[in-house]
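Sample entry (240 residues):
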Amino acid sequence: MTDSQRLSQVFVELADTLVTEFDVVEFLTTLADRCVELLKAKEAGVVLADEQGVLRSVASSNETARLLDLFELQNQQGPCLDCYRTGQRLVNQSLDDQPERWPQFGPEARRLGFSVVHALPMRLRGRVIGAVNIFGGDGEPLSEADVDIGQALADIATVGLLQERTLREARVLNEQLQAALTSRVAIEQAKGMLAERRQIEMDAAFALLRSYARRTNQRLKDVAQALLTGTLSADVLDHR
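Predicted structure, serialized as tokens:
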């Protein structure tokens, strides 16, 4: 399959997600995964602003990216914050250059194996609702074409979150974003419980939850909640 064919598939995949009521966390996790794949990055994460305008980590390509997003938000410094505040892309930002820019985030990202970062705004008509963090290693910098692809994916996600609503419907948007954040809490709790019971990594636990949700055509948050309440046995997650 050529790169252009795969790119077309990804756009169709994201567009299909918007046809019916969709699982926000699953949708944005797919966005993070596809950014990693198409841009040949190491990891990616997605942050959204809550009703107070505070950024929260909502989805990531793996646990390392999620923890780095949380570190960034807790320390109030890093590419996604700068991107969200300005509404501008941050591309090919080497962590070896300008160490004073992110004195806490930079060393932590470096410790986790990243050397270059990018951040793309999630925006529509001038309104920024979040950002996509993209973390790279010691590879080639993103080309202009790569950046355009990444921004297009972020734009599709933004349209998905705002579909069939006008920018004036802030209440509806805030409810949707709050629901996504609430869902994430349940998912993180279920992931931790599953990881402890199975003695597996958090990434593996999340993969089990996500795979089961997809196989059974359920929302990720519903599977997580069922696991937490005991209405779903952890044993069935492995069944194909």
